[in-house]
Amino acid sequence: MTKSVLVLAIWLGFLTSTSAVAGNLDRNKTPIDLIFDEGNRAELSMTVVAPNVTGRDSSGNAVGNVGEDFGSVAAGMKLQFGQRLSFAMIYDQPYGADTQYGGSPTTTLFGGARSQAESDALTVLLSYDVTDRIAFYGGPRVVQARGNITLSGLAYGPLNGYDVRFSNDSALGYVVGAGYEIPEIAFRAALTYHSDVDLEMQTVETFPGTTPISTGPTGATLPQSLKLQVQSGVAEDTLVFGSVRWSDWSKFTLDPNSAVTNLAILDDAWTYEIGVGRRFTNNFSARLSYSYEHEEGDKLVSPLAPAKGAQTVTLGGIYQLTPRVDISGGISYTWLGKALLETYPENVVRGTFDDNGAFGAGLRVGVSF
């Protein structure tokens, strides 16, 4: 695929992943935009997010910030083999959770409850330009994940004090997609599918008043997703872009081999983004974007994921330090959707979280060679 001569055509690959605490575990929406860059390129990026997630329990007591600050890193390399074939390898940390409730488990509804999850992913892509306008790409993706959940507080009844740890496990998925480009106007449309990934994590459970016991593997399916992204030049040095992404979180479960029922009931998520980028000088460009994430289902959620949907505004800039080196950065603010907390029995509201948000910032260094 012939690459656009407009510098702004790199915007969809620019670091703006500053996801906060949402009802699902998505943190960066699994980007693969490096495969579209021109020539040989390497990138290293870092993102930090500071959530403020507070609410009240059903007794009217204030619940302090339960969202822990977190950071993530990503790296990638893209190589061009001739005019039609290219290769990319991308490392990222696509999924995660970090929630911690303060207070005593003997006097508050959620005191001591926590969830922590981490992941790493490595994606390898080959892209082939069938014509100057049409390309197909795809390749394997390996994901590793682990985590820990503690149910603590009076709202959990006899499970107050239950703890479960999921050990590292890795599994293989794949990515496939296709792109269409009109270089003269910097137009590109790309449709990308990420398959689901099935994990089997060895599990150790600790029930209240007992010692830890191994209960074998717990299955968890990281969700498939489908993303359509479009960009086009609309005036000299000006580019507009947008995307729609669906993620199949309703298939995700954490159901240990014990009497404890599923610990993760999540809903499918739809994420919409629209934005504009503009080059102001030969060395500096900026972009502004807005995204909206809608999670299907009602507003009832687990206390360990106290948000339902999100809206994010992101402002970013990129500066060309030398002909081969660029540095880019972005800041964002996310408004988290209102959530009603439930434990067991289901459909009983145990708390309300509203008017919450998160600040995010990202930095990326890119080198062309």
Written description of the protein model:
The chain has 369 residues and is mainly β. The protein has a single domain (7-368), classed as Porin, CATH 2.40.160. Helix content is 0%, strand content 58%. The protein contains no helices and 22 strands. It has strands at 41-52, 55-57, 62-63, 70-81, 85-92, 97-100, 114-129, 134-151, 162-182, 187-194, 197-206, 213-222, 225-235, 238-247, 269-279, 284-295, 300-301, 310-320, 325-336, 339-342, 349-353, 356-368. The strands form two sheets. A 14-stranded antiparallel barrel has the order 1-4-5-7-8-9-10-13-14-15-16-18-19-22. A five-stranded mixed sheet has the order 3-2-21-20-17, with no helix packed on it. The chain is globular and about 65 Å long. The model is unreliable at 1-7 and 9-20 (pLDDT under 50).
Lay out the secondary structure.
Blueprint: E1 41-52, E2 55-57, E3 62-63, E4 70-81, E5 85-92, E6 97-100, E7 114-129, E8 134-151, E9 162-182, E10 187-194, E11 197-206, E12 213-222, E13 225-235, E14 238-247, E15 269-279, E16 284-295, E17 300-301, E18 310-320, E19 325-336, E20 339-342, E21 349-353, E22 356-368
Parallel strand pairs: 17-20
Antiparallel strand pairs: 1-4, 1-22, 2-3, 2-21, 4-5, 5-7, 6-7, 7-8, 8-9, 9-10, 9-11, 10-13, 11-12, 13-14, 14-15, 15-16, 16-18, 18-19, 19-22, 20-21
